[in-house]
Records
---
Amino acid sequence: MSDRYCVFGNPVGHSRSPAIHAAFAAQCRQDLMYEAILAPRDGFVDAVRRFVAGGGRGASVTVPFKEEACLVAKRLTDRAKIAGAVNTLVFEGSAVLGDNTDGYGLLRDLTHNLSCQVTGKRVLLLGAGGAARGVIAPLLDTQPAALVVANRTAARAHDLAQRVSRADSLGACGYPQLAGQSFDLVINATSASLGGKLPPLPEGVFAAGSLAYDMMYGQGRTPFLVFAGRQGAARLVDGLGMLVEQAAEAFRIWRGMRPDTTPVMAMLRAAEPAPSATQ
Ligand code: ATR
């Protein structure tokens, strides 16, 4: 019987993860089955238990279960602890390991696929929810000249910065305080794009030659990327690369081999997915 993996989410019908992992498995000649499981909002833990009892070897976790998944795991990696969220579960007998590959996925997409070095750059991270929490520590690890977290609810940005505060280069504020500042890299980690909305950014935050990155992906440009283009950002990038890279890191954790992500990204681009969150 094939080894079983899945993604838990609600909703999960939009998920590209089954297609991504099927492509990785074919490429790496791994005999595995990967399905999407819609868990009830109040039934995530039971759904995981059932999956493990049925021989499940590992799982991806997406909205809205990434935080609850921390409680399911008996052991957390450091990056999952800092993020306070788990997107990858490994079932080893009765032991459950929780990891978070989102930050890795973002950094790998930026530095490897897009040749965008973060070190020494001025970086603006929009949002202070789960998506921002997953990437803030890996971003800081790359030693940007400055990292500013901006959020609609400024207090949440301050809380997030305090959670990881270990660098003078880290700042936090609301959107109005961004007026007069500009950045080389602006990352949208809010869920605004999901609702077709734009975070209330002041004009002028995109420095000449800057890269605008929306963690969301989908058909056409998100309102954030349209705004960034009008404001003079030189490069506009959606989150498809991050999605595939975080999945590749999960695949490496589960199967011990790293798939080539380039053909898988090309396959997904050709399929033109509908707007969606990561995973
Ligand atoms: P997730 O886990 O996906 O990050 P979340 O914890 O609900 O979800 O966080 C959503 C983030 O998107 C928050 O930073 C939220 O801002 P608030 O903390 O002020 O709610 C942000 N967000 C959602 N819609 C937004 C919008 N229209 N404009 C700006 N920020 C928005």
Note: The chain has a mean pLDDT of 94.
---
Amino acid sequence: MKPPAPETEESSPRTAPFFSGELAGVGPARKRALAEVGFSSAEDILWWLPSRYEDRRFPTPIGQLKEGQTALVRARVLGGRTRRIYKRGLSLTEAIVSDGSGNLHVVWFNQPWMERSLTVGTEVCLFGKVVLFSTRAGLRLQMDNPSLEKADAGAADLDRVVPIYRKVAGIPGKQFRRIVLKLLDEHPPVESLPLQLRESERLPNIGEAFRMVHFPEEPIVPGGGAGEVARKRLAMEELLAVQCVLGEAKRERALASGVMIPATREAGLLLRRILPFSLTGAQRRAFREIASDLASSKPMYRLLQGDVGSGKTIVAFLAMAWAAQSGFQAAFMAPTEILARQQAERLAERVAADGMEVALLTASVTGRARRQILERLASGGLRLVVGTQSLFQEKVLFNNLGLVIIDEQHRFGVEQRARMVAKGRSPNVLVMTATPIPRSLALTLYGDLDLSVLDEKPPGRIKVVTKVRDDSAIRKIEAFCRTEMDGGGQVFFVFPLVEESEDSDTEAAVQAYERLTQGPFRGYPAALLHGRMNGPAKEKAVAAVRQGKAKLLVSTTVVEVGVDLPEASAMVVMHADRFGLAQLHQLRGRIGRSGQQGYCILMASAGASKAAVERLSVLEKSDDGFEIAEADLRSRGAGDIGGLRQWGGGGFRVANPIRDKALLESARRWAEKISRGEISWKAEEKERFGEWVRSWSGRLGSWGPIG
Ligand code: ADP
Ligand code: MG
């Protein structure tokens, strides 16, 4: 079995396929499917943790089922069939099963293949929720969309607490479960933490930890028991690797020498000329810190952290203008095309009067225009460039790159960041993030970066009025939106990732667009924006809103990332309970940017729990990004099973740096011990650990994990 490798190229020896062929049931096609979605090693699979569990140990007799119960039923099929419903594409599969204590109706929506398992007389196990269903003949209990196993199903699927995984493209859930079990049984992972550490922190070995998490003996309860012990072990594994990588990076950087951009009188005058307003105290402080980095021979490696709207951009622009004025090139990387375009325009507005030119380099800049930009970057004739991923493509060469700005840094992978930096000779790097985290935590997490914080908002910003509402208020809200638009304002409707796939996300927004523009907002000029549109189409939508041609914008969360729509005054976020608080805070930061009163309405989904709605109310009260992020991180995972759900931050699959503060601290101490050679290792552990850390240095830098 091989560890995850930093790169996924097949040719690399460290990514040798780990299903070395003997793994029954994993044929070449499946291996390819797994590799395609990023699983190239045993660890990749083991680290894909269950999102929940089903306790399929104890069947309930049908006669004893109760409404609302989630139960396992073991019964024989009396009959089953699929029929199409009047609406195109919908199907309904129904079955009746019996276990002697009673008969049960079972229904699946849009899973016509279920019919194949419903041969009369087969014994099946059904796991699902019992609901009350009203028919003409009266009420009856039925089970909706249960999972189904043949009664003689394999060891992974029945008679135990069964892990349920988030969908992996191309791999049926059952199959995935079997692969995991097989791995645990036949190819147990190799230990990587030194015994000394495991003993002193009282952590189980890696094989046990994975088994406890994937196939626990008992259902995992949040915050305690065996599940928590296993979680801690895995979290330690992650945190320690990160601390080792960061420590190493910092030690290396302390020795490097880089581009020096001295402060001159001309630079000072230039900055004064291009500054459109006076800086806040926080901006001034941050800029001073940056300026002294630029002027020093040590390359800058700084994180600029500030709540949405705190004015990070102008600070970055000043640094860029300064670099350009001193004869260096400066590049600004934005995560999306829309943003890149917007920032390029904003920068050009500032520096045009001084005769400085700003180029935009994105995927949609092609042909001659692109060639010219590349030529002029290579010759040094062009000093300021704003772009997307396009910037770090191989063909893009710089003459003397002195400064790299990376906006919304968590959107970029490490490797991308490294490639950009490699285009100069140790250029200065400023990364910016709007995900505020407490300073002490940031220092531990981003250990290798210096930190500047904008903790003050520019003057004149009016707090966005925020309300949490549910479906019952929808008519009122629609009326309110019409009033806003009639009064010259603009309105956003935002749809989250409804399912865990980008398709359905888009689907939801597209359908809503139809419904809203045909119904409540008929006659209002509208635009639609989602991630699957191509560059020009997106651009057109944003332009329509920015120029005031569209009054209504229906969008997926693509607007979250920094798109500035200054005239928008109201935002309605659908299914708001499915968002993180920090993300919602980002979203509402998009509106009310031109001094008008902004309104943000957070619509809870129909089925949202009371706790979920309460969580949202933090946003009604607080406007402080740090406070909100902390509340968010604290609550994150609290409601999941054992807190095991992968929380999607730029790296950690298990660790939660807020809740695992203590663990993080001890990881940092252990990392120091390791770097000082104070650990006695078994050779095997040491090698394994080295590989693990290297794989993280491949993943890192997409920092932060909190993204
Ligand atoms: P973010 O930190 O979210 O990137 P921006 O840099 O986009 O914030 O700034 C938000 C808005 O505030 C912009 O319209 C910007 O022009 C304005 N702004 C920034 N700094 C100041 C300042 N010192 N005084 C007045 N307005 C400012
Ligand atoms: Mg920004």
Note: The first helix runs from residue 28 to 36.
